[in-house]
Amino acid sequence: MSILRTFATDILAFDEQDTINTVADAFLSQAYQQCLSVAVVNAKQQPVGMISRHQLNDIFLKKFGRELFGNRPVKDFMRQDVLSVEVTDSLAEAAAYISKKMRFPLSEDFVITEQGRYLGMGAVLHLLSAMEKQISQSAAELNIAYRQLSSSQAQLVQSEKMAALGQMVAGVAHEINTPLGYVNNNIEMAREFFAQFHYVLQAHEHLAHTLIDPNSRDVDIAESLANLDDAKAGFDSQQWFADLEGLFADTFYGVEQISELVTGLKNFSRLDQAILDNVSLNECIENALLIARNTLKYKVTVLKRLEDVPPIRCAASQINQVLLNLFTNAAQAIKEQGYLLIKSWSDKDFVYVSVQDTGCGIAAEHLAKIFDPFFTTKPVGQGTGLGLSISYKIIQQHQGSIRVASELGKGTRFVIAFPRTLNLSAAA
Prior knowledge:
With 428 residues, this protein is α/β, with parallel strands linked by helices. The protein is built from 14 helices and 13 strands. It comes from Agitococcus lubricus. One of its GO terms (molecular function) is phosphorelay sensor kinase activity.
């Protein structure tokens, strides 16, 4: 079976004659919840265009947009340059084509066809992530060969971090793209508002010039007044400023979201800080949750019970990596909808973090092996088996411990303990 067939989601395409209102209602439904765009097909089920959420927002944000355009057919607004791949194409061919043709900010998915007829929609980020996984799988095989020559732990840690980097970047890119999309749209709307205001202002200036010109005739003044009336037709200054204030508020909110993500990335990597620093585990939890947000948000409800814990001396980027791995594993273990409960607390000797999910659980015969290098219960190509092994080593280096309890069908709980005082000579 073609690998691209696995990307084809069972999404009904829109007919050319479907109205914009019909399309908008579909995008609000559960079936279309994760679609950025959907194909428009003709009677032969051949894709003739695409319509995206971004385009709908642009239509409905216009003044009286729904009333003016809601009953018009989607073919009048669709993008005719279809981002499409044939189901028989290889993963590499499809990824190369999509990478070349996709536009930023990312506002649409791609169409998958079979012999020119619509088969389904595919997510661009899923395709690129699959390509990244192929590369990661090749890298993992090279790492296995390297491990046979050298037991260098540092190389294995870096390999796993790089394997996870693609997934992390894809998730953050998706999170940034959403606010970036409506910031861009709001700026376009503001430009249209100011163009209309400029037209009215010019009419006022022309009238003022006519009034003070000693050579002006009554007919000139009447003409300037008529031009001003035409310019002000349909222009409600009070509503204009109210709409503009709303646009600016939305834009600032979007910029704040982007700033939050960028700050989260910086805090997650801790590139500007010393390797060892006094760090709050609660901050590490928040940073890792921010990076994992795109992985968690569609199916995982995060519950936090974080106590006021003392800071510990640690390499923050490594602790972030451990937590991100546990959060990602929890999301993968939850098949449809579930919960992730995160706790922190302390006693006189240790600071603790508990990560508990309601996922599929781990079989009893596998519990003793989950921290072994290259052990994984995931299908081939979906896991390197290094994540928990590296996490275990990182926790050991910080003189901590990690325990796991699990039950099939009910979930898994990891408890990590870090000493409140780190023995630097032992850590070295």
